[in-house]
Specification:
Length: about 250
Amino acid sequence: MNKQRLRDVALGFLFCLALVGSYYCGASASPTNTDLSDEEIKDLKKQIDGLTAQFSLSEEVRTKKLVIVNDDGQEVIIAEVVAGHGILRVKNKDGQNLVTAGTSTDGDGVLHIANKDGQNLVTAGTSTGENGVLQIFHKTGQELINAGASSEYGHGIVKINNKGGENILLASSTEDGDGVLEVNDKSGQRVIYAGSHVRGNGAAMELYNKTGETIIQLVADDDGHGYIGIWDREGKGRSLGPVGKPIAQPIAR
Protein backbone atom coordinates (compact mmCIF):
# COMPACT_ATOMS: atom_id res chain seq x y z
CA MET A 1 0.00 0.00 0.00
CA ASN A 2 1.59 3.33 -1.04
CA LYS A 3 1.83 6.47 1.09
CA GLN A 4 -1.05 8.20 -0.67
CA ARG A 5 -3.32 5.23 -0.03
CA LEU A 6 -2.30 5.08 3.65
CA ARG A 7 -2.99 8.78 3.99
CA ASP A 8 -6.44 8.41 2.43
CA VAL A 9 -7.28 5.51 4.76
CA ALA A 10 -6.11 7.50 7.80
CA LEU A 11 -8.19 10.52 6.79
CA GLY A 12 -11.22 8.31 6.28
CA PHE A 13 -10.76 6.79 9.72
CA LEU A 14 -10.44 10.19 11.35
CA PHE A 15 -13.52 11.42 9.52
CA CYS A 16 -15.57 8.48 10.82
CA LEU A 17 -14.15 9.07 14.28
CA ALA A 18 -15.19 12.71 14.06
CA LEU A 19 -18.74 11.71 13.20
CA VAL A 20 -18.86 9.35 16.18
CA GLY A 21 -17.40 12.03 18.41
CA SER A 22 -19.96 14.58 17.29
CA TYR A 23 -22.73 12.13 18.13
CA TYR A 24 -21.40 11.47 21.62
CA CYS A 25 -20.69 15.13 22.25
CA GLY A 26 -24.31 15.90 21.50
CA ALA A 27 -25.46 12.99 23.64
CA SER A 28 -23.27 14.08 26.56
CA ALA A 29 -25.65 16.95 27.23
CA SER A 30 -28.16 14.41 28.50
CA PRO A 31 -28.13 13.95 32.32
CA THR A 32 -28.40 10.19 31.85
CA ASN A 33 -25.30 9.87 29.65
CA THR A 34 -22.16 8.64 31.41
CA ASP A 35 -20.41 6.86 28.51
CA LEU A 36 -17.66 9.45 27.87
CA SER A 37 -15.59 11.42 30.33
CA ASP A 38 -14.60 15.03 29.88
CA GLU A 39 -11.08 13.94 29.02
CA GLU A 40 -12.35 11.59 26.32
CA ILE A 41 -14.47 14.35 24.81
CA LYS A 42 -11.46 16.70 24.78
CA ASP A 43 -9.43 13.99 23.05
CA LEU A 44 -12.07 13.59 20.35
CA LYS A 45 -12.12 17.34 19.79
CA LYS A 46 -8.36 17.31 19.33
CA GLN A 47 -8.70 14.60 16.70
CA ILE A 48 -11.38 16.63 14.90
CA ASP A 49 -9.09 19.69 14.93
CA GLY A 50 -6.30 17.53 13.55
CA LEU A 51 -8.56 16.28 10.78
CA THR A 52 -9.47 19.85 9.85
CA ALA A 53 -5.80 20.79 9.74
CA GLN A 54 -5.06 17.82 7.46
CA PHE A 55 -7.60 19.04 4.93
CA SER A 56 -6.50 22.67 5.10
CA LEU A 57 -2.84 21.72 4.52
CA SER A 58 -3.52 19.34 1.64
CA GLU A 59 -1.47 20.32 -1.44
CA GLU A 60 -3.05 17.90 -3.87
CA VAL A 61 -6.53 16.69 -4.76
CA ARG A 62 -6.89 13.55 -6.87
CA THR A 63 -10.15 12.87 -8.67
CA LYS A 64 -11.41 11.88 -12.11
CA LYS A 65 -14.00 14.65 -12.26
CA LEU A 66 -14.28 18.07 -10.63
CA VAL A 67 -17.48 20.13 -10.96
CA ILE A 68 -17.85 23.77 -9.86
CA VAL A 69 -21.36 25.23 -9.62
CA ASN A 70 -22.70 28.76 -9.29
CA ASP A 71 -25.03 30.05 -6.55
CA ASP A 72 -28.00 28.44 -8.35
CA GLY A 73 -26.35 25.03 -8.44
CA GLN A 74 -25.68 25.14 -12.19
CA GLU A 75 -22.46 23.56 -13.46
CA VAL A 76 -20.14 26.28 -14.80
CA ILE A 77 -16.71 24.60 -14.75
CA ILE A 78 -16.04 20.91 -15.35
CA ALA A 79 -12.64 19.23 -15.28
CA GLU A 80 -12.72 15.56 -16.10
CA VAL A 81 -11.14 12.64 -17.93
CA VAL A 82 -12.54 11.64 -21.33
CA ALA A 83 -11.11 8.63 -23.19
CA GLY A 84 -8.06 8.79 -20.96
CA HIS A 85 -7.30 12.45 -21.70
CA GLY A 86 -7.89 15.52 -19.56
CA ILE A 87 -10.51 18.08 -20.59
CA LEU A 88 -11.68 21.39 -19.12
CA ARG A 89 -15.03 22.96 -19.98
CA VAL A 90 -16.31 26.42 -18.98
CA LYS A 91 -20.06 27.07 -19.35
CA ASN A 92 -22.30 30.10 -19.06
CA LYS A 93 -25.29 30.09 -16.75
CA ASP A 94 -27.48 28.84 -19.63
CA GLY A 95 -25.44 25.65 -19.91
CA GLN A 96 -23.63 26.48 -23.18
CA ASN A 97 -19.97 25.51 -23.49
CA LEU A 98 -17.93 28.69 -24.00
CA VAL A 99 -14.39 27.36 -23.58
CA THR A 100 -13.17 23.81 -24.06
CA ALA A 101 -9.51 23.00 -23.47
CA GLY A 102 -8.23 19.49 -23.75
CA THR A 103 -6.75 16.87 -26.00
CA SER A 104 -7.62 15.93 -29.58
CA THR A 105 -8.19 12.33 -30.67
CA ASP A 106 -4.55 12.30 -31.81
CA GLY A 107 -3.32 13.31 -28.37
CA ASP A 108 -2.48 16.92 -29.24
CA GLY A 109 -3.60 19.97 -27.27
CA VAL A 110 -6.65 21.86 -28.54
CA LEU A 111 -8.63 24.94 -27.47
CA HIS A 112 -12.15 25.87 -28.59
CA ILE A 113 -13.89 29.19 -27.86
CA ALA A 114 -17.61 29.60 -28.57
CA ASN A 115 -20.16 32.42 -28.47
CA LYS A 116 -23.01 32.53 -25.97
CA ASP A 117 -25.11 30.30 -28.26
CA GLY A 118 -22.49 27.55 -28.24
CA GLN A 119 -21.25 28.13 -31.81
CA ASN A 120 -17.49 27.53 -32.06
CA LEU A 121 -15.69 30.68 -33.27
CA VAL A 122 -12.01 30.02 -32.51
CA THR A 123 -9.97 26.83 -32.57
CA ALA A 124 -6.27 26.64 -31.69
CA GLY A 125 -4.47 23.37 -31.97
CA THR A 126 -2.13 21.22 -33.99
CA SER A 127 -2.28 20.45 -37.70
CA THR A 128 -1.82 17.01 -39.25
CA GLY A 129 1.81 17.97 -39.84
CA GLU A 130 2.34 18.53 -36.09
CA ASN A 131 2.50 22.31 -36.54
CA GLY A 132 0.44 24.94 -34.76
CA VAL A 133 -2.80 26.11 -36.38
CA LEU A 134 -5.34 28.84 -35.59
CA GLN A 135 -8.83 28.92 -37.10
CA ILE A 136 -11.41 31.70 -36.81
CA PHE A 137 -15.00 31.05 -37.87
CA HIS A 138 -18.08 33.05 -38.80
CA LYS A 139 -21.10 32.54 -36.54
CA THR A 140 -22.56 30.31 -39.27
CA GLY A 141 -19.59 27.94 -38.93
CA GLN A 142 -17.77 29.05 -42.09
CA GLU A 143 -14.00 29.32 -41.69
CA LEU A 144 -12.79 32.91 -42.20
CA ILE A 145 -9.12 32.78 -41.20
CA ASN A 146 -6.67 29.90 -41.10
CA ALA A 147 -3.13 30.57 -39.88
CA GLY A 148 -0.48 27.91 -39.59
CA ALA A 149 2.29 26.21 -41.55
CA SER A 150 2.03 25.10 -45.17
CA SER A 151 1.94 21.35 -45.68
CA GLU A 152 4.13 21.71 -48.78
CA TYR A 153 7.11 23.71 -47.49
CA GLY A 154 6.50 24.14 -43.75
CA HIS A 155 6.63 27.95 -43.89
CA GLY A 156 4.03 30.19 -42.28
CA ILE A 157 0.77 30.68 -44.15
CA VAL A 158 -2.37 32.76 -43.61
CA LYS A 159 -5.61 32.20 -45.53
CA ILE A 160 -8.52 34.63 -45.41
CA ASN A 161 -11.92 33.63 -46.79
CA ASN A 162 -15.13 35.55 -47.35
CA LYS A 163 -18.27 34.43 -45.57
CA GLY A 164 -19.18 32.38 -48.64
CA GLY A 165 -16.10 30.21 -48.12
CA GLU A 166 -14.05 31.51 -51.08
CA ASN A 167 -10.38 32.25 -50.44
CA ILE A 168 -9.76 35.95 -51.10
CA LEU A 169 -6.28 36.45 -49.62
CA LEU A 170 -3.30 34.14 -49.24
CA ALA A 171 -0.03 35.15 -47.58
CA SER A 172 2.59 32.44 -47.70
CA SER A 173 6.11 31.60 -48.82
CA THR A 174 7.88 29.98 -51.74
CA GLU A 175 9.96 26.83 -51.35
CA ASP A 176 13.05 29.04 -50.92
CA GLY A 177 11.41 31.06 -48.15
CA ASP A 178 10.48 34.20 -50.10
CA GLY A 179 7.24 35.99 -49.26
CA VAL A 180 4.19 35.62 -51.52
CA LEU A 181 0.86 37.45 -51.48
CA GLU A 182 -2.11 36.42 -53.61
CA VAL A 183 -5.38 38.33 -53.84
CA ASN A 184 -8.52 36.73 -55.31
CA ASP A 185 -11.90 38.10 -56.25
CA LYS A 186 -15.10 37.00 -54.50
CA SER A 187 -15.36 33.92 -56.72
CA GLY A 188 -11.84 32.75 -55.79
CA GLN A 189 -10.21 33.82 -59.10
CA ARG A 190 -6.70 35.19 -58.59
CA VAL A 191 -6.33 38.84 -59.63
CA ILE A 192 -3.02 39.89 -58.02
CA TYR A 193 0.23 38.06 -57.37
CA ALA A 194 3.05 39.84 -55.51
CA GLY A 195 6.28 38.42 -54.23
CA SER A 196 9.89 37.79 -55.01
CA HIS A 197 11.12 37.10 -58.57
CA VAL A 198 11.96 33.42 -59.08
CA ARG A 199 15.50 34.33 -60.10
CA GLY A 200 16.02 36.39 -56.95
CA ASN A 201 16.07 39.72 -58.79
CA GLY A 202 13.79 41.52 -56.36
CA ALA A 203 10.09 42.31 -56.44
CA ALA A 204 7.70 40.80 -58.96
CA MET A 205 4.01 41.46 -59.49
CA GLU A 206 1.34 40.25 -61.87
CA LEU A 207 -2.22 41.44 -62.39
CA TYR A 208 -4.84 39.22 -64.03
CA ASN A 209 -8.18 39.76 -65.71
CA LYS A 210 -11.34 38.04 -64.54
CA THR A 211 -10.60 34.93 -66.61
CA GLY A 212 -7.08 34.52 -65.25
CA GLU A 213 -4.90 35.83 -68.11
CA THR A 214 -1.91 38.03 -67.22
CA ILE A 215 -2.52 41.62 -68.30
CA ILE A 216 0.15 43.57 -66.37
CA GLN A 217 3.56 42.48 -65.14
CA LEU A 218 6.15 44.37 -63.10
CA VAL A 219 9.58 42.75 -62.70
CA ALA A 220 13.26 43.43 -62.21
CA ASP A 221 15.90 41.84 -64.47
CA ASP A 222 19.19 40.22 -63.48
CA ASP A 223 20.95 43.62 -63.53
CA GLY A 224 18.37 45.27 -61.27
CA HIS A 225 16.52 47.19 -64.00
CA GLY A 226 12.76 47.53 -63.82
CA TYR A 227 10.30 46.49 -66.54
CA ILE A 228 6.58 46.77 -67.11
CA GLY A 229 4.72 44.40 -69.39
CA ILE A 230 1.17 45.01 -70.67
CA TRP A 231 -0.84 42.42 -72.63
CA ASP A 232 -4.31 41.89 -73.94
CA ARG A 233 -6.32 38.78 -73.11
CA GLU A 234 -4.83 36.95 -76.11
CA GLY A 235 -1.31 37.51 -74.80
CA LYS A 236 -0.36 40.25 -77.26
CA GLY A 237 1.32 43.36 -75.92
CA ARG A 238 4.66 44.92 -75.15
CA SER A 239 7.17 45.47 -72.40
CA LEU A 240 8.50 48.82 -71.32
CA GLY A 241 11.96 49.16 -69.79
CA PRO A 242 14.96 51.48 -69.53
CA VAL A 243 16.27 52.81 -72.82
CA GLY A 244 18.85 50.53 -74.43
CA LYS A 245 18.07 47.55 -72.19
CA PRO A 246 16.77 44.18 -73.43
CA ILE A 247 13.14 43.25 -72.85
CA ALA A 248 12.57 41.32 -69.62
CA GLN A 249 11.06 37.89 -69.71
CA PRO A 250 7.68 37.23 -68.09
CA ILE A 251 7.63 35.80 -64.57
CA ALA A 252 7.86 32.01 -64.68
CA ARG A 253 6.37 30.24 -61.66
